[in-house]
Design goal:
The structure is a single chain. This protein is α/β, with parallel strands linked by helices and 193 residues long. It has helices spanning 15-30, 43-55, 65-69, 88-98, 109-123, 141-152, 170-179, 187-190, and strands at residues 2-6, 34-37, 59-64, 81-85, 101-104, 131-134, 165-167. A 7-stranded parallel β-sheet has the order 4-3-2-1-5-6-7, sandwiched between helices. It starts with a strand and ends with a helix. The model has no long low-confidence stretch (mean pLDDT 94).
Length: 193
């Protein structure tokens, strides 16, 4: 399975997150899965790639050319395939299209945007790929509480919470990714407008 991992690009975070994501990558790579990621060498992007490399998994990095040209982000040097795109939008589309599933690990604004994009596309039935948030040390607890608040207030349909899982349990996450079945819902069940 080709797994897209979205997460932090910065090393200025608690090293525990880096260690946990590197371990996850090693487990996924060792299970024969492939990584599609944003090609960054640092933060949790780099950790996922190093882990996949240790586990023997194939790694495909996707990054906009201007990141290289303007030295915005260090590029992971051991990708099996490195793809340069024209824009951030092209980068995300390529990653989304090439992947069979998504794991969101802790991150900031870009990571949240990536999560909400793949979630919105699934809500709109543009894909049926599993989405998992890796909830290291409860990182996503407040986000999940906010999603519940939005649901309680009527801004998100109750069934949208079935479109993803949020867990710190790697075994549960892997089981979900490998055995997830398409949900039986119509677009109107989860979206009014």
């Amino acid at each position: 399975m080709k797994i897209c991992i979205f997460g932090a690009a910065s090393n200025d975070i608690n090293p525990h997150y880096i260690d946990m994501v590197e371990r996850l990558g090693a487990e996924l790579g060792g299970a024969g899965h492939e990584l599609i990621f944003g090609a960054g060498a640092n933060g949790l992007m780099g950790a996922s790639a190093r882990g996949f490399k240790k586990g023997g998994g194939k790694i495909t990095g996707v990054i906009p050319s201007f990141f290289r040209d303007e030295s915005i982000e260090a590029i992971y040097g051991e990708c099996d395939e490195l793809i340069f795109t024209e824009s951030m939008r092209d980068r995300k589309k390529l990653m989304e299209d090439a992947s069979d599933s998504f794991i969101i690990v802790p991150g900031g604004i870009g990571t949240f945007e990536e999560f909400y994009e793949v979630l919105t596309l699934k809500q709109l039935k543009r894909h049926e790929k599993p989405i998992a948030l890796y909830n290291i040390d409860g990182y996503f607890n407040n986000l999940m509480a906010f999603m519940e608040h939005c649901t309680d207030e009527g801004f998100i349909k109750r069934g949208c919470s079935d479109l993803y899982i949020c867990t710190e349990d790697c075994d549960r996450m892997l089981e979900y990714l490998e055995h997830s079945k398409p949900l039986d819902y119509t677009l109107r069940d989860l979206k009014n407008g």
